[in-house]
Write a structure and sequence with these properties.
Elements: H1 12-16, H2 18-24, H3 31-36, E1 45-47, H4 50-54, H5 62-74, H6 85-94, H7 100-130, H8 134-159, H9 167-173, E2 176-178, H10 181-208, H11 221-241, H12 250-269, H13 273-278, H14 283-298, E3 304-306, H15 311-333, H16 335-357, E4 361-363
Parallel strand pairs: 1-2
Antiparallel strand pairs: 3-4
């Protein structure tokens, strides 16, 4: 993990804004406490069936697998996650220009991103420790290494403002969700690929409009998201080596996970409109660009694709957003009425997601060549 910044490392400008930022973070709650929460919109920690993971066979994709292991061993990002001298200089210039509201949304983004990266690190490391299969053990060690760097690098930007997440404590206190290995494959493949799509979309936007880059961390996103892309490739190879995971009733599970990931992202992102606006996006346009890229990538492994342009798809996402906002108001209201309202909104969300699930999907043949390059 990246070492925390010392007091001497922090600029006077950064220190001046700690009070403002802490107010925005509801100073009764630390970043670690926020990261530890499990809600429909927050990243979760996972555990799985290690014996089933140990039994995986990648021999049907051996040539591609060995090439990928060589890429991991080459570790082309080993020197990437280090802050250069320009980082601090940019921070001094850019951060005082941000409104408290934008700071709040940016910190929410960093906490969520750090938690998500650390979630991957923990899962991959636990699988590594609990399997003897040399292929799976080696892969998990490489991916845990990458995610550790990512989480540490994000956490450094939080620690600049005395808001760092205590990752050791988080590992102990956050609840874990059990997923069967196939659910891990579907969900984590999507998480890694949509992570790539999110980061590269932001990077390309700020590459075109450098005046909208309000924090230096965005300069790291291109090489960073290539790690995410390779992690997704790893799960693509695992699934293509177990073809039963991509046929029959499992196509229904794939459909479920695609919709769940897209819907969660859509609702969460629309709670951060200023963050996207500051980068020159509208939240809806940004999300649909990410969905488009992710859908194109997923054709390498998923036999079904959600029609993101279908009117019902868009209508259901908008409805889920409105339900989420109404539920937040019910939570704030509290009391018996608030609890009753929350139950009503939970039922409405369930029905709306059911309608979303019925949106027609596109069936497709899987390509012969599995591996893709991060060319977006």
């Amino acid at each position: 993990m990246t070492a925390p910044a010392t007091t001497e490392d922090r600029t006077d400008v950064e220190t001046d804004h700690v009070a403002l930022l802490m107010d925005g973070m509801k100073n009764t709650e630390t970043a670690t406490e926020r990261a530890a929460k499990n809600t429909m919109l927050t990243p979760r920690f996972y555990t799985t069936d290690f014996k089933a993971m140990d039994a995986l066979d990648v021999s049907p994709v051996r040539a591609e697998w060995d090439r990928m292991m060589a890429e991991y061993e080459g570790d082309n990002n080993q020197d990437h996650f280090k802050r250069d001298a320009a980082f601090g200089e940019e921070l001094k210039v850019l951060m005082p220009q941000l409104s408290p509201e934008l700071r709040q949304e940016f910190m929410d983004f960093l906490i969520s991103s750090c938690t998500s990266e650390f979630s991957g690190c923990i899962l991959y490391n636990e699988i590594r420790k609990n399997v003897s299969n040399p292929d799976i053990k080696q892969l998990m060690a490489y991916m845990a290494r990458d995610e550790s760097r990512h989480a540490g690098f994000i956490n450094q930007s939080l620690k600049d403002f005395n808001l760092g997440i205590d990752l050791g404590s988080l590992k102990r206190v956050k609840a874990y969700t059990y997923f069967k290995p196939k659910y891990i494959f579907y969900a984590t493949y999507l998480s890694e690929k949509i992570g790539y799509a999110r980061y590269i979309t932001i990077f390309r936007q700020l590459e075109r409009h450098p005046d909208k880059r309000f924090h230096p961390i965005f300069r790291w996103f291109e090489r960073w998201c290539n790690d995410e892309f390779r992690h997704g490739e790893s799960f693509a190879l695992i699934m293509r080596a177990q073809p039963h995971l991509l046929s029959g009733v499992n196509k229904l599970w794939i459909r479920f996970f695609i919709l769940a990931v897209y819907a969660t992202m859509y609702v969460r992102d629309h709670t951060r409109p200023m963050l996207h606006e500051a980068m020159g996006f509208k939240s809806t346009e940004y999300d649909y660009e990410v969905f488009r890229i992710t859908s194109e990538i997923c054709r390498q492994v998923f036999p079904v694709e959600v029609d993101i342009d279908h009117p019902s798809f868009r209508a259901c996402l908008d409805q889920l957003l409105q339900i989420s906002l109404a539920n937040d108001r019910a939570v704030a209201r509290g009391g018996l009425v608030g609890r009753l309202q929350r139950g009503w909104y939970a039922a409405k969300a369930f029905v709306t997601f059911g309608r979303l699930y019925l949106v027609p999907v596109k069936e497709q043949e899987l390509p012969k060549d599995i591996r893709l390059s991060p060319v977006w």
